[in-house]
Amino acid sequence: MNLLGRHVTVMGLGHFGGGIGAVQFLQKQGALVTVTDLQTEEQLASSLEQIDTSQLADLVLGEHREELFTDTELVVVSPAVRPDNRYVQLAHEAGVPVTSEIALFWGNCPARKLVVTGSTGKSTTASLIYQCLRAAGLSARLGGNLGGSLLEDLETLTPDDWVVLELSSFQLQMLAPLQPRPDIAIVTNLFPNHIDWHGSFEAYEEAKQAVCGFQTPDDLTIFNADDDALSLWPTEGKVIWYGKECWRDRPGVVVGEDHLIVRTHKGGWKIELSDLAPALQSPHGLMNAAAALAAVLVGLELPIEQVAEPLMNFAGLPHRLQPVGELDGRLFINDSKATTPEATIAALRTIQQPVILIVGGKDKGVDLSSLAASIQASVKGVVCIGDTGPRLRELVTEKFEQAQAQEKRRPRPGTSDLNWITSAGSLTEAVKWAWSQSEAGDVILLSPACASHSEFTHYEQRGEQFVAEISRLEDSSKPL
Quick one: which H or E segment has residue 427? Predict the structure, then answer.
């Protein structure tokens, strides 16, 4: 669509940069842009500062109006907007095209595309691949669900460049009408997630499958061999496997207990756990590293010496198993980006010290029973917060009582009751309780296993408040 002089409604300015990037791009194309968001001007202050509001056709905050979706020529929606949203349906009924920020980028991007998706591990994998490409001297950009927008880079991107995109199921569902064909598609795993948004696990899986469903034999598809469901996914791409169950006699990456074995057509290498950065020295860290190496060493056949530096020095991501302070012998770890039960279970498996866990948030309609079992079996104490808090506390209690009846309860010195499980009405209360229950040598872990929207705007805000609460504890511990 030639956007010059066209009326476009941007639904959801948000805080992560996608809405901002869309507005800036549309204005540069000469479109007459209207922004509408349910949040207030005060809530969106930092985002509004980044766009030229004086050049908007209209700015509607705190509400949506029907005419903004019917009397327009294009609607650009935020990934957080459900497809059955009333206003989106109004646009469809009026014959108004509906698209997204990532679709605008994809349709105009001349560069080679590497897309990472999955239920867990996609941010770390995408970030590590990006660093490897840069270390090898290739021109690369990183974007997608990680935040920000690459729309502003379109003018400088060329067919020789790479864009590494972490894409969510929401973004892929919006891309599907374009029949996206990434040069390399990586799927880290698949667990039930965002059922509240998609309506069913099948719909969630179908949305994810857009990442490889339109590929051709000229493209690469990289799958986690330990996830049986992925072997059934439709793709015409050349498939490369990685994981513990990876074939050991063909190109791919085998994940051992404390090493990786990389096999290519040109040779192979054994990479010891000690050779990797500390941020990758965990079971899920090894899997993320294996996925990245399947792309850069097996798929692109880059020399291993060119990607060694990122592998050895990868610092990890903010809000993902991030140590954020130590006070009186207690280590605080911010894992706010853990928005699925599987991510929190992986965190509990990674940490060896006694854990006081803060868990819970927005209810996405997923099964929490495996998480409850893992909590019962591995933590010293747990405080449940958010919309899922009551259900989580009930499930953990149930698992505890079952284990107690079978005499399989994990010993907790000095307690035979349920005093190690509680609920809190806010993150502030949760941190105070966790601190009161901890002792030197413990880890106080924020790993919510849920989205943040019941109390916070996004997981970053949740993690930032966790850090702020630690500062308050430090201040209160100082002598007067």
Answer: helix 427-437
CA 451 to chain centre: 10
Contact (CB, 8 A) for 289 and 260: yes
Q: Are 52 and 35 in contact (CB under 8 A)?
A: no
Please check whether residue 449 is in contact with residue 371, taking contact to mean a CB–CB distance below 8 angstroms: yes
Cβ atoms of residues 385 and 358 within 8 Å: yes
Q: Which residues pair with 186 in a beta bridge?
A: 116, 222
Residue with tokens 């669509």: 1
End-to-end CA distance of the chain: 66
Contacts of 255 (CB under 8 A, 6+ apart): 242, 243, 244, 246, 286, 287, 290
The pair phi, psi for residue 415, each rounded to 5°, is -140, 135
Instruction: Measure the CA–CA gap between 237 and 48, rounded to whole angstroms.
Output: 42
- Residues facing residue 164 across a β-bridge: 114, 142
Over residues 67-84, the pLDDT tens digits come to 999 999 999 999 889 889
Q: Which of 414, 319, 328 is nearest to 123 (CA)?
A: 319
Residue pair 380/400 in contact by the 8 Å Cβ criterion: no
Of 301, 120, 127, residue with least CA distance to 226: 120
Which residue in 195, 194, 183, 207 sits closest to 117, CA to CA?
A: 207
The Cα-based distances of 313 to 51, 162, 170, 307, 339 in angstroms read 36, 22, 32, 11, 26
H helical segments located in 168-235 = 169-175, 195-198, 201-208
State the DSSP H helix or E strand holding residue 333, giving kind and residue range, or none if neither: strand 330-334
CA quadruple 26, 28, 34, 37: dihedral sign:
positive
- Cβ atoms 133, 172 nearer than 8 A: no
| pLDDT one-digit tens code per residue, 386-426 | 999 999 999 999 999 888 887 655 545 434 467 899 999 99
Q: At 285, list the tokens.
A: 């860290």
Q: Read off the pLDDT of residues 210-250 as tens digits, 9 standing for 90 and up.
A: 999 999 999 999 999 999 999 999 999 999 999 998 887 78
Q: What Å distances lie between residue 243 and 225, 260, 273, 274, CA to CA?
A: 5, 9, 15, 19
Provide CB contacts within 8 A for 98, sequence distance 6+: 74, 75, 76, 77, 88, 91, 92
b/e burial code for range 86-115 (CB count within 10 A of at least 16 → b): ebbebbeeeebebbbbbbbbbeebebbbbb
